Amino acid sequence: MRIKVINPNTDEQMTESIRVTAERCCEKGTEIIAVHSPIGPQSIENYFDEYLAIPGVLQEIIKGDKEEDIDAYVIACFDDPGVPAAREITDKPVIGIAEAAMATMRFIAPSFSIITVLDRSKHMNEKLARELGYSEVLRSVRSTGMSVLDFGKNHAQGLAALERESRKAIEEDKAEGILLGCAGFVDFAKEMQERLGVPVLEGVTPAVKIAEMLVKLNYKTCKFLSYSFPEVKSFIGYDNAFSDVALFKKR
Amino acid sequence: MRIKVINPNTDEQMTESIRVTAERCCEKGTEIIAVHSPIGPQSIENYFDEYLAIPGVLQEIIKGDKEEDIDAYVIACFDDPGVPAAREITDKPVIGIAEAAMATMRFIAPSFSIITVLDRSKHMNEKLARELGYSEVLRSVRSTGMSVLDFGKNHAQGLAALERESRKAIEEDKAEGILLGCAGFVDFAKEMQERLGVPVLEGVTPAVKIAEMLVKLNYKTCKFLSYSFPEVKSFIGYDNAFSDVALFKKR
Amino acid sequence: MRIKVINPNTDEQMTESIRVTAERCCEKGTEIIAVHSPIGPQSIENYFDEYLAIPGVLQEIIKGDKEEDIDAYVIACFDDPGVPAAREITDKPVIGIAEAAMATMRFIAPSFSIITVLDRSKHMNEKLARELGYSEVLRSVRSTGMSVLDFGKNHAQGLAALERESRKAIEEDKAEGILLGCAGFVDFAKEMQERLGVPVLEGVTPAVKIAEMLVKLNYKTCKFLSYSFPEVKSFIGYDNAFSDVALFKKR
Amino acid sequence: MRIKVINPNTDEQMTESIRVTAERCCEKGTEIIAVHSPIGPQSIENYFDEYLAIPGVLQEIIKGDKEEDIDAYVIACFDDPGVPAAREITDKPVIGIAEAAMATMRFIAPSFSIITVLDRSKHMNEKLARELGYSEVLRSVRSTGMSVLDFGKNHAQGLAALERESRKAIEEDKAEGILLGCAGFVDFAKEMQERLGVPVLEGVTPAVKIAEMLVKLNYKTCKFLSYSFPEVKSFIGYDNAFSDVALFKKR
Amino acid sequence: MRIKVINPNTDEQMTESIRVTAERCCEKGTEIIAVHSPIGPQSIENYFDEYLAIPGVLQEIIKGDKEEDIDAYVIACFDDPGVPAAREITDKPVIGIAEAAMATMRFIAPSFSIITVLDRSKHMNEKLARELGYSEVLRSVRSTGMSVLDFGKNHAQGLAALERESRKAIEEDKAEGILLGCAGFVDFAKEMQERLGVPVLEGVTPAVKIAEMLVKLNYKTCKFLSYSFPEVKSFIGYDNAFSDVALFKKR
Amino acid sequence: MRIKVINPNTDEQMTESIRVTAERCCEKGTEIIAVHSPIGPQSIENYFDEYLAIPGVLQEIIKGDKEEDIDAYVIACFDDPGVPAAREITDKPVIGIAEAAMATMRFIAPSFSIITVLDRSKHMNEKLARELGYSEVLRSVRSTGMSVLDFGKNHAQGLAALERESRKAIEEDKAEGILLGCAGFVDFAKEMQERLGVPVLEGVTPAVKIAEMLVKLNYKTCKFLSYSFPEVKSFIGYDNAFSDVALFKKR
To answer: What's this model's pTM, rounded to 2 decimal places?
Structure first.
């Protein structure tokens, strides 16, 4: 089984962390193809970043289906950028790490908080949680005030900030689980869990495992109605990456 | 890994179907212990049945932790009877088949309908879907008008009824996935999927796979707050099955 | 008129308090039959307790219909355990004290808070309030940190804790009414009301009065669809208490 | 005990029907004072009618408190016109017939539909049901297409229209209870119930009984925050009916 | 174009402030007819005030259509009193200042708080915001504790109180826009905006501009179903202001 | 005043229709700069199209701020693609045509339906309406089954399909207003309104008028928190269109 894990930003170091995390949790027979987006921002902290990251993600999915014989895709950013579009252009399972983390947490805790990077990013997490039906169980979104890149540079300070905000989420907001709201936090989950005593999940691990499950069970994305293959039409720009979109339906 | 799959009703034939389904989908290293509740109703179609099935489910979980070295539990009835209580008395993962089926379907379809047995059972499915946050994506709950036991007796008629109601769900209600809303329907999923062309899930398979995932990742139920072990107190009746509840905390 | 008030736990002292409260508020022509569950936990503070209390409640209702010529039932625990099942097995009115308290409060206050026993019990109250449509008006659920049995042992300390949390609910959460979220609190309502100056309700009194109202008006539970009598089927265990369930339909 | 039942429109015949209904259901010791609004529309079928009916209702409440020694008020129109304002100007219980009917129905049926007069009136019923927290259980609002005054003129045709729409609500919308959504329908409830076989409630009866209950228990409207007595200020017009509003606080 | 701006209370000074604000923002070709209600309260701070203000508002709209050749109406109180009734009796656009302010704010900020006068008034704002679909974006309603008339008397103290509560809304509740929740606050918007650095809107200005827009585009209120002209019927009282309501349909 | 109206797809004919519509409704002093996206799909009918259209929209906004002295932006596609990101990169007002149409309709009708192109597009409209708070008033989304490009080719057939679906929305779903859910429908609004007799809005006109309003009032997008300018970071690809994103903050 080949699972392609796409880091929607262009940061190599984060892609490497994601790859290590994905390989650590996957089955022996699973091959992880970890890539980052060929175009887009260095990190994703706002809607501008998110939207500019999506075309690169979609390119990687098209490439995955055409050239790489991929069985399932993981989109490794906690805003789940482009997931509905990705589900249109392939019938292979596509999993966002935020939706995977939230769905998994619900099996072991009745409520949770998300710890994110910047104050501004909270809007995106709250919107996504609401869309996915978690309004009643999301206790809070708390931010560390550190950017994605700050975390990359200063591991110890990042861990301290995550712990501080998580404790507030648990004690003040009564969260019974902590979701690490950035793919850049994959390295912190284990230690955080030990420190806090409540479930602490990053999203890459659950997403990879769910992808494996769907592939094994041969579950495919519904191609009736909303997620059917895109209509054939002309595309301009993107170095012609999407100009042969007509081919979708042929596959 | 040892996963105990508990059929909350007392029907042997259904337990056997569930066992076969669980064993078909699990990993090689997974041992399935399929049991039915020692006390309770022959089938679960209303709240009365559901509540009388729960004590037996809880007994099986206590026994599983005490005597059987179980790693995770699946409660194999589409009403997820007793799931919150089960999560209180063990820190091993507990998965209801309805919550597993709904969570899994969401990764491959943006909406779904549930096909259940009797008209009266719709109330329970709607309530559960709402509690779990699926109000916006649940297109409809449709019933076949056949009881659980009717299905056991007449496979062909059951399949026809399921197909008929599923087609209405797809065509009239615009459902993009079908959930088979009874553990007694495990045998129908594959053929239904072929006939309908949209994802068709029964819940036992997703629940077993999610249980496997949680065990492998060593994710445990949160023991802070809502799901902490029950307080020590005296219990009367139930042939003393719950009288040593004080022991929970010792483990 | 004969109203059976069922304490779902097995505590005699609490049953006696409930009986006194019910008799104090009922009409002259009303006879109160106060009982506690024959099987189950000594107190109800979590889902485990709740589910193990339900079969005993259902036994008492079946006995009430068969042997005691009961006109209506009150289930006297603030989690309303088993109410939907109880409505299936009898066409006599069945009233939970939480639903009665919330419905009554709404006629005299636009918002309210619930004061409960333990932190963990808040989850149950919030879930019930949401199910019953009170999300918008429930200001908070606050807990005293004292168990049900602690309250029984130490009246003065219990009253102080209830007052302290109620004042926080009024001042910080802007609650305009206080619901005492445990049948063990029936003795505190009058004094609390005097101290706080906002409406303070325990649930037994409203539930008994609503039961009286429904009986006088000859309003019966709807037997079409969701609450129709349970289907005939075999039951195992429970000392055969439910084995003649087939008789429901005959009545 | 003296309960004032206020018909917010100016129709004498409807006031008389309401009075008969209230007296039929009340206790022996209860005196029903049934009046209609001194100013306003002949019937209430839209927001214009509703708002013009409210000042007359408020006048009757002020008069009730000042001159008539009233213990509780019932506002007998299914739009519950002016209920929050009424709760501000008196601390005696004020009950709207729609809120009373919906709260009562919930104790005997898990869902309901409302049958109203005109198509246009549905908007008001849906809005009120949503405000009161009944969105999930309101199956539909159906209209007969007959005006309030048509019903007064043609009893048989009215009954037929109500039955026709109620049957659709039960069969097509799966309503498990029927609320007669107009105070002009009080005479139809008994016969409708017999014909339909599901609970059929008009609102006057539940409202009177709930008013009696609140008076007996000495429950008063919360005077902290939202429903505290109105601030002292000058009023113009209304033949000085509200010019001594300053007196509220003195009482 | 002639826009009638109706102050629903009877305060001349506030009407004058509203007129100045409306004239400052309107187009050259727009004539502002600013009036206050002929009957009703001096200010609106609770439901009692609100309901007694509505008949005067409706009178002014009827007069506007009959005698003044008005093109659109603005109801200048932040509770939007009588808006649905006003939309029934005219097909000219009717705009409430609260709905205008909330709709406008949403184009420039993803969330907002409302600053109102008294604690008690918060209930009305929350209810209106919920009805209009702003539950998810309303961060808080905060009150200054000063009455409408206090603001009129003490400009500096009012400004200080508004600033204090707005800062709390921004810093503690994370509001990204501030709505001044009283027509008496029109004079404060500009200075507040400068002090706070986030968008600060009073409602009169957006309402006048939206009214202008609707008139220019010749958009009229839908006369199908809910807002169709009221049915012809007799009215008592109100000095016969509504007795020729039958004329609506003729126009 | 200079308003830039951006057609997010690359279709020249549709851009021209949009330009004509915008110029028809705008003030004399308003200059309309109508452009289409430099990169992206020929039409937008699914999430894939939508996401690939957004980078081009953002490029046009950056260009508008840097080179064209634009005062406000209209994004002329009924999915409002990229609106939150657009609000981050400029402090000039940004208006999506769907949000403008829905907000405007609410001032003249209490409910509405959206008529869209393909069945699959309904998912996007429902999601957007829910996000914006219109769940309660959206009666239905109905589709014509014709693609965007089909409409461009066959005006008469398109009009007939729109009328057919609109009539169903009015008669079956009780919609009191019709929103034309595609920027390609701008030419149909006037004739549709005449045929249907309820308000019919396309979104370009309301969006342009709201943009004019915001500019005149000098209302700017909130730059505190969610919509603050994007953080400085490196971008790859897009022919360096976003590589000087650091400049945002300088402006």
So the answer is: 0.97
